[in-house]
Amino acid sequence: MADRAALAAFLRARREALQPEDVGLPRGRRRRTGGLRREEVAALCDMSADYYSRLEQPRGPHPLEQMLAALARGLRLSLDERDLLFPLAGHALPYRVRRGDHISPGMMRILDRLGDTPAQVMNHLGETLRQTRPAVALLGDETAHTGPARSSHYRWFTDPVSRLVHPESDHAEQSRLRVADLHGAYTRGGADSRAAELVDALREESPEFAGIWRERPVLGPSCAAKRFLHPQLGALDLHCQTLVDPDQSQRLVVYTATPGTGSHTNLQLLSLLGGQPGDARPGRTV
User: Fold this and answer.
1) Which is higher by pLDDT, 199 or 277?
2) CA atoms of 28 and 212, how far apart (whole Å)
3) How far apart are the first and last CA of the chain?
4) For residue 231, what are the CA distances in angstroms to 133, 160, 213, 223, 286?
5) Which of 88, 96, 124, 158 falls between 20 and 30 A from 56, CA-CA?
């Protein structure tokens, strides 16, 4: 059973403990409260201010697991705090909530400070958990997919549109890199893991994947430069820097360009696109 009063008190305490600087927001001169405002937390959690306010009062609805995951992410909860949040709302742990989908507060703090840079947090299956607005402008909203398509690796081998973001001459290399990444996740997780389920599905659906899988490719220690095709900015030569959180099986991927190049200039323009590629989906045309 949910404890609405305790849930409301917990949310209020965590909101008041957060400072604007903790989540990449300006403090402003007229701020009277020390913590965040309710509408700021709601925006961080991708929910309406009215919905969040009702949870704190407490007179809100019984939140679903997806909403609780959004609250844990927006309030920058640690895993222990996240594990307290779900029982307060009447949900069990750990089976219905994958720990690998919860982004650690430290990782979120880093991402908050990359608002003008294409960056995203991904888990061990290639599922994107959070993106900056420039990353959405570069790659599209990768958090909107459901089912197996949450994995960018799955989409790469089953949806031809997903390949348009890279030049065709790079597709073979991209395929091997993605199979190698899944091979590592499969090796760590074993035959009963979600990685194994994804591998089994791809071996059945994609002859290309099955052929590369038989070779058991392994990722190297470095991340080479990648070429991207953007419908408005054209070709971009970007470097991919990765920060790994081994406890969460997650990585923060940051895309940069060499200063003084056309790619560097165009990369800075991504912030002006507002994180909404809209009709101009990355890779559709060049």
Assistant:
1) 199
2) 54
3) 54
4) 16, 16, 32, 25, 5
5) 96
C-alpha 230/C-alpha 262 separation (Å) is: 13
Cα 132 to Cα 119, 165, 197, 220, distances in angstroms: 6, 18, 29, 27
The DSSP H or E segment spanning 74 is: helix 65-74
Q: Are strands 250-256 and 119-123 parallel, antiparallel or unpaired?
A: antiparallel
Query: Of 213, 217, 211, 202, whose CA–CA distance to 159 is shortest?
Result: 202
Answer whether 0.90 is exceeded by the pTM: no
pLDDT, one tens digit per residue, over 250-275 is: 899 999 999 999 999 999 888 777 55
Sheet-wide strand order for 119-123: 128-131, 119-123, 250-256, 234-245, 226-230
Say if residues 274 and 222 touch (Cβ distance below 8 Å). no
- Domains in the chain with CATH codes: 4-97 (1.10.260.40), 106-273 (3.30.450.180)
Residue 130 has phi, psi (to 5 degrees) of -160, 140
> Distance between CA atoms of 216 and 207, rounded to whole angstroms?
15
Q: Which residues are 228's β-sheet partners? A: 236
Phi, psi of 258 (to 5 degrees): -65, 125
Residue type, 129: L
Give how far Cα 127 sits from Cα of 29, 116, 271, Å. Answer: 39, 22, 23
Q: Can you give the pLDDT at residue 222?
A: 57
Examine the pLDDT at 191 and tell me if it is beyond 80: yes
**Is cis: bond before 94, omega within 30 of 0?**
yes
Q: What is the pLDDT of residue 284?
A: 35
Instruction: Round to whole Å and give the CA distance between 193 and 187.
Output: 10
